[in-house]
Amino acid sequence: MAQSAALLTRLLAYSVTAAKRAGKIIRDIMSQGDLNIVDKGKNDLQTEADRSAQRCIVTSLTKQFSDVTIIGEEESSSCEVPTDWVVTEMDQEVLSINLPTNLENVNASDLCVWVDPLDGTSEYTQGLVEHVTVLIGVAFKDRAIAGVIHQPYFRNSESNSWGRTIWGIDGVGVKGFQPISPIDGERIITTTRSHWDSTVQGALDALEPTNILRVGGAGYKVVLLLEGKAHAYVFASKGCRRWDTCAPEAVLHAVGGTLTDIHGERYSYNSKTSYPNKGGVLATAPGQIHQWYLARIPSEIKQRLI
Ligand code: AMP
Ligand code: MG
Ligand code: MG
């Protein structure tokens, strides 16, 4: 059954187990206490956990899907990967789903996997570990169509264990969590904690939020939308890149939410596309009128994000 499953099903089934394994690596490195932090640019940190989690995910997926393009945030490394970092099992729940007919027989050459092995690195280094997610997004041609958002530090009180994995496929829906609608009568907006500037502020001011939730990571902000804790995620900045938004966009779309740039255009995620999300990020929870948010962002701000 498992080997005969469709390519996209198998790819997502391995992505779920790889994201969970990467989450364990992230927890282990934090508890060992040596993050070995490097600044890749201005306010763009990388730790041992980012590097190791990427090696786990990319090696695991490349081993199974050598003909699928996999693009990870971190530079690849020629170091040997410990064998217990390479996953060989597929997630059984993913294997049990039925794909929509348009995704049943896709070619490997039309798929591209975008990996953010640790989203929310600044917050991770500051001990705000609940903001951290592992993101694996799958694009078919231009579109983000499937994604995994794993939260390594989500506490499961019933089973007394760590980690929650939310995954979704366009036309199938989302598993691992039952989305909740945000309450009416408020406009709670989530945005960056660590990449703030006057343009980010200008867009928020124009939307007149009733509350602002400044948290780390694109993955965690989309989780807040799924949990009904925020109505929109607004980031009028060129700072995010495709690996930040591919999985969150796919998961959000699978439940009827929307993620675009601040001009209302969806990003392209094919393997040849450029990485920066130059038009910023506007994501809205299911039931929100995306167009309303787009129309409220001043054109003067939009002009800065072309
Ligand atoms: P934030 O909302 O600031 O946590 O950003 C979401 C994701 O985009 C994180 O992975 C950040 O590292 C990345 N990001 C956002 N802005 C920047 C920036 N100016 N430079 C580097 N990475 C950024
Ligand atoms: Mg990121
Ligand atoms: Mg990252």
Brief account:
Helix content is 31%, strand content 23%. It is an alpha+beta fold. The protein has two domains: 166 residues, Fructose-1,6-Bisphosphatase, Chain A, domain 1 (2-Layer Sandwich), CATH 3.30.540.10; 116 residues, D-Maltodextrin-Binding Protein, domain 2.
Termini separation comes to 47 Å
Task: Give the CATH class of the largest domain.
Answer: Alpha Beta
Structural class: alpha+beta
Number of helices: 9
Return the CATH architecture of the largest domain. 2-Layer Sandwich
| Percent of residues in helices | 25-40%
What is the rounded Rg? 18 Å
Biggest sheet layout: 6 strands, mixed
CATH fold-level name of the largest domain: Fructose-1,6-Bisphosphatase, Chain A, domain 1
Q: Stretches where pLDDT falls below 50 for ≥5 residues?
A: none
**Strand content range:** 15-25%
Can you tell me the CATH superfamily of the largest domain? Fructose-1,6-Bisphosphatase, subunit A, domain 1
Instruction: List the ligand species.
Output: adenosine monophosphate, magnesium ion
In spatial order, strands of the major sheet run: 3-4-5-6-7-8
Strand elements, count: 13
Q: Whole-number average pLDDT?
A: 97
Give the overall shape: globular
Helix/strand order, N-terminal first: HEEHEHEHEEEEEHEHEHEEHH
Domain module count: 2
